[in-house]
Structure formats: structure tokens, C-alpha cells
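TICKET: design request
STATUS: open
ATTACHED STRUCTURE:
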């Protein structure tokens, strides 16, 4: 597309207008932006472009950052958020760090104090570029209006190419107000950023194909890079051609359908027994867009210790970082898989191995006590999965037990239908992320499966949902505790409760002396809070009432919070304790 046709180069424009025109030129449809003194010119500009670009006002900048991520994770396109200088900018920091660890293309735009006072501790000045230096893929402090158009193009290019990530553009107020005639086609100035060469060599593809042909117990280990490179169809074709089973990371969920007989579901600390056993016994591990994260590997030296490893990743710094690869391939995963699919042949005979994996899957499934009288978290998720099956459904989650159970029990079918803060593990991610997913997919069912701790970290976004007509559903698995930390207290600290109860401190539960499986009091009153924000809401505690309550939630025309009463004694299993091996797996 020629940008020159979109705005005449001779026309004088303010820096703020150039920023917004740049967003429009990049095809951005929605921005999550919270105003303040140092970003007002850009907000004024946003109103001038309101027929081309929707501006959503979150109720906290962190919510805006996560909403932009939800947009990005569910579409593959870059998400855009904006904040003012100082506290507005620092409120974005967590969402930027989160995008960095999960390789999400995010454009974060901040207002800054005027250039003459930078460095003077001016009102609402924070050195946001300095603060974010280690958590961005790249960052800019723009000091000349003539650079704005080029910087914006570079920002989108960097955020979306190679290994995606967040780019910060900090714009002093005087630069926003200054005028110039923008050069929309000025070449980008990115020496050293050469990502076009990140393509597997034909020889590497041949080596990978040869290793697959010879393998007797091969396994595919698929992660976020499969989604980032839109390689899900190529992965499915590889599996069709070779019959090799697939396990996924928390980031990779959705890239291969859980219900397929060759899916071994999630691996790692709370992954399936069968996936972890398959990793233990495989002789070839085909690692695609993954980083051998410690939550996946446990003790690295024992991880897939008898396997030859093919590791394909677009980021060369991931290869041989945690685990040496026998066939390291720097490549866009989709490109590599498409090339591989042209020549790959099925291994001689892996039917015994595949039967073994499938037998483990039958014998050691994710399970819970389905005779339990009340509602268990796992049951609620499995019911939601069943009831929403025929709809276009997107799931977001907070961080904690509910997140892991969602990964285990929600049956995903399609890429980009799952959004989880995985690398950073940020509580408060689920609700605003769902908001961004819904903005991108107005007619889809978007459900935030959340924990009561996580939900409260960005609960203010219920206001955004109501005011912006975003009909997100929240299925709140309310155990009145910071359940995941409680689980670690129970397992590793003799059950000593250390600030993990979310009710009043005089309750017995605060000391771990509660007598019931439910807390003394349901606190806070989430139904009243949700209604106060203008959302629909209901609570459910009887198992028999659950399906109807889920139906009511799904069919409600606006945003809705379903407060599900669950016990707090449940543990997420299986569990491989941190730094240990599959032999230490806890099953009950
Ligand atoms: C911002 C943030 N603070 C603290 C933590 C540590 N942490 C991880 S899980 C968890 C408990 C989450 O509780 P809740 O959201 O209620 O989920 P549950 O485990 O009860 O399902 C905590 C405190 C975190 N991940 N993120
Ligand atoms: Mg909880």
C-alpha cells in the first residue's frame, strides 16, 4: 500500500496527527488509550480520526495494555495502547513486560513531558524508555517531529517481524504539537535488523526429514512460535503426513486440537502425565517455536534426555540457550514446516509408540472427583467447554489454579482462541485481555475464566465493558483464596497460611483453621459489584444449577459475571515440583 496516497506529503500536520494517521495507515482498527496532560494532543487527534479508528477508554492503563494484547493474541495483528506520561506510562509497564515474555506484538505509545524539561523531574515525568529498556523489543524517545512518521513505521515493522514483541514510542508533548509535512515513504533506518534471512536452509530441512524418517519414538513439542508464525495449518499437515503425536506448551494451546487422538495436550509442571511420559521416553523431540522454559522442563538435564532434538525458532538466541539442539534451525516456523512438508516421509514404524502414548492418555487422563457434591473448578470448566462447543469461543484466563485447570479441561480447537499470560504470569490479565478479544471479535463468545484474586486486579474494566458495549462473560472460580499459593503452602509449608485468604483477617480461614470446605463468608459480593458497574450477574453454588447458570451467562446480551462457589482444598494435579523431574510427578 502506498502511504503517499493516504495523505499528501506537502500538507503540514502536527506530530499528534501524524501518530494517528500512521495508525490508520497501518490498518489499526482499535486503540486502548487513557488520556492525560502529556498525551492530550494525541487524544484530540484521535477524535479527528474517529470514523477510521475506534478509541476505547479503559479504566486503568494496565487494562488498556492487556486489552491491546487480547486484541493481538486473538488476531495476530499488533495491539495498540496509549498512556500519558509519568503514572500513565508506568501503569503500562507490566503489560509491556508481559508482551515481551510472550512475544506479543504490542505498540505502546506514551506522552512525555516537553523536550526542554526532560531530565528536570518535571511534573509527571518518568524516564519511561529507561524503565522499559530491558522489557521492550525496541523503544523510541522521539525528539523531532520530522521523525514521527518513520518511527511509527519502524515500530510496527519491529513489533510484527521476526520474533514479535512490544515496541514503546515515547512522544514529548512539544513534538506532538510541532508541525511538519510528513514523508510517509521515507526509508526505515534499521541497520542490523535483518529478519528476512531467518529461513531454514534446504540442508537443514533435509536433516530434519532424515531424523524424522529414522525416529522410532518421535514427539512434537509445539509452542507460541507456531501461533506467532501462523503455522498451525502446516503443523496439522505435518502430523497428518507423519502420524507423530503432539504436545503443547501453555502458549501453544490451540495450535493443535485437544480432541484429536494424536494430541497429548499440555506438557510441563501441570501438564498431562502422558505428555510428560512421552517426553521422557521419546527418541526425537521436534521443538517448534518453544524456549524450553523451566515450567516445561523442570530439571533441564533430565528433560528428554535420550532424545535427539530438532529445535526450530525464529530467534537465534533461543537455540542452545537452555538445552542443546542436535539440529538447531533458525527459521520462521511456518516457513520451515511448509518446506519440511514437501519432502517429509512418515517414520518406518511408530505405531507401537503411538499406541503406547494413547494408552497412557486413556489410563492417566486429567481427572477430578466427579462425585463431589458441590462444584469443582475442573467440573465448571469442563461444563463450559461442553456447553460452548458449537459456538465461536475465545477463552482468556487470570493466573493461578483456575488458569492451569482451564489449560487442562477446556477443549480448544483453533489457534488464537486462548489467551494466557504465560511467561510473566500476571494476575489481572484475564478480564482486560477478554475486552480486547471482544473488541476484535464483536460477535464471538468471549469468556474470561478467572480467579477471585486475579479478577480483583483489574475489576475496574467491568466499567469499560459496560460503557463500550463489549459483552464479555466472566466465569469466576471463586475459592476465596489465592489458590495456587495455598496449594504451595499445603505442599511445601505444612499448610501454614501466609496471607493467602481473601476475606477478613479475623476469619478462621486466614489461619488455615476453617472448618468447612467453603469460606465463612463470601467476600466481596461480586454480584453486587458487577451490577453496580451495569453488568449482568448471578452466583451459583449447586452442581445441578451449573449448566443453566452457564447458559444464562452465555445468552445474556451484555457483559456478565457468573460467580461460581468452589472449595479451596483442591490442588492442580499432576504436578512436577519446580526443578524436579518427571519421576517426581505428584499424582494425588
Ligand atoms: C501480579 C501478580 N501478583 C502475584 C502473583 C503470584 N500468584 C500467582 S497465582 C496467585 C494466586 C491467584 O489467585 P486467584 O486469582 O484467586 O486464582 P486461584 O489460584 O485461586 O484459582 C498468586 C498470588 C502473580 N502471579 N501475579
Ligand atoms: Mg482464588
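STATUS: resolved
RESOLUTION: sequence designed for all positions
ATTACHED SEQUENCE:
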Amino acid at each position: 500500500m502506498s502511504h503517499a496516497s493516504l495523505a499528501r506529503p506537502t500538507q503540514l500536520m502536527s506530530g499528534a496527527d501524524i501518530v494517528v494517521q500512521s495508525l490508520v495507515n497501518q490498518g489499526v482498527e482499535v486503540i486502548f488509550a487513557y488520556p492525560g496532560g502529556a498525551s492530550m494532543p494525541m487524544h484530540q487527534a484521535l477524535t479527528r480520526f474517529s470514523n477510521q479508528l475506534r478509541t476505547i477508554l479503559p479504566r486503568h492503563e494496565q487494562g488498556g495494555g492487556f486489552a491491546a494484547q487480547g486484541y493481538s493474541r486473538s488476531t495476530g495483528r499488533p495491539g495498540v495502547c496509549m498512556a500519558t506520561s509519568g503514572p500513565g506510562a508506568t501503569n503500562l509497564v507490566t503489560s509491556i513486560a508481559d508482551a515481551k515474555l510472550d512475544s506479543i506484538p504490542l505498540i505502546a505509545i506514551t506522552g512525555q513531558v516537553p523536550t526542554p524539561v526532560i531530565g528536570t523531574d518535571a511534573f509527571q515525568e518518568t524516564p519511561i524508555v529507561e524503565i522499559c529498556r530491558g522489557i521492550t523489543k525496541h523503544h523510541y524517545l522521539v525528539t523531532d517531529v520530522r521523525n514521527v512518521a518513520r518511527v511509527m513505521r519502524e515500530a510496527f515493522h519491529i513489533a510484527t517481524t521476526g520474533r514479535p514483541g512490544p515496541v514503546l514510542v515515547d512522544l514529548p508533548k512539544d513534538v506532538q504539537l510541532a508541525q511538519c509535512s510528513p514523508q510517509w515513504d521515507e526509508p526505515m533506518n534499521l541497520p542490523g535488523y535483518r529478519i528476512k534471512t531467518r529461513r531454514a536452509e534446504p540442508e537443514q530441512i533435509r536433516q530434519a526429514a532424515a531424523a524424522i524418517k529414522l525416529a522410532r519414538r518421535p514427539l512434537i513439542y509445539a509452542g507460541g512460535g507456531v501461533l506467532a508464525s501462523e503455522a498451525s495449518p502446516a503443523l496439522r499437515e505435518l502430523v497428518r503426513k507423519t502420524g507423530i503425536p503432539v504436545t503443547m506448551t501453555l502458549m501453544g494451546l490451540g495450535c493443535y486440537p485437544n480432541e484429536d487422538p494424536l494430541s497429548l495436550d499440555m506438557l510441563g509442571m501441570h501438564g498431562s502425565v502422558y505428555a510428560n511420559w512421552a517426553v521422557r521416553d521419546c527418541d526425537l523431540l521436534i521443538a517448534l517455536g518453544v524456549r524450553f522454559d523451566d515450567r516445561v522442563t523442570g530439571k533441564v538435564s533430565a528433560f528428554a534426555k535420550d532424545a535427539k532434538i530438532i529445535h526450530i525458532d525464529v530467534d537465534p538466541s533461543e537455540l542452545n540457550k537452555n538445552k542443546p539442539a542436535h539440529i538447531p534451525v533458525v527459521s520462521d516456523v511456518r516457513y520451515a514446516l511448509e518446506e519440511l512438508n514437501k519432502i517429509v516421509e512418515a517414520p518406518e514404524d511408530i505405531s507401537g509408540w503411538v499406541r503406547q502414548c494413547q494408552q497412557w492418555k486413556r489410563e492417566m487422563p486429567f481427572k477430578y472427583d466427579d462425585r463431589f457434591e458441590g462444584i469443582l473448578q475442573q467440573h465448571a470448566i469442563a461444563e463450559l467447554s461442553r456447553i460452548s462447543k458449537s459456538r465461536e469461543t475465545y477463552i482468556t484466563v487470570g493466573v493461578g489454579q483456575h488458569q492451569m485447570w482451564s489449560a487442562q479441561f477446556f477443549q480448544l480447537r483453533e489457534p488464537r482462541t486462548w489467551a494466557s499470560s504465560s511467561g510473566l504470569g500476571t494476575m489481572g490479565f484475564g478480564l482486560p485481555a477478554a475486552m480486547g478479544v471482544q473488541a476484535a471479535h464483536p460477535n464471538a463468545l468471549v469468556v474470561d475464566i478467572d480467579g477471585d484474586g486475579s479478577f480483583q486486579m483489574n475489576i475496574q474494566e467491568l466499567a469499560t465493558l459496560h460503557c463500550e458495549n463489549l459483552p464479555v462473560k466472566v466465569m469466576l472460580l471463586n475459592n476465596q483464596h489465592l489458590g495456587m499459593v495455598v496449594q504451595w503452602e499445603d505442599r511445601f509449608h505444612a499448610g501454614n497460611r501466609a496471607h493467602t485468604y481473601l476475606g477478613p483477617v479475623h476469619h478462621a480461614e486466614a489461619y488455615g483453621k476453617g472448618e468447612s470446605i467453603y469460606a465463612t463468608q463470601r467476600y466481596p459480593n461480586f454480584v453486587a459489584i458487577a451490577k453496580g458497574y451495569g453488568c449482568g450477574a448471578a452466583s451459583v453454588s449447586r452442581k445441578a444449577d451449573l449448566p443453566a447458570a452457564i447458559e444464562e451467562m452465555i445468552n445474556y446480551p451484555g457483559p456478565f459475571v457468573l460467580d461460581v462457589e468452589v472449595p479451596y482444598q483442591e490442588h492442580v494435579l499432576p504436578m512436577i515440583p519446580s526443578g524436579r523431574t518427571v519421576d517426581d510427578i505428584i499424582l494425588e
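CLOSING REMARK: The chain has 23 helices and 20 strands. Residues 61-75 form the longest helix (15 residues).
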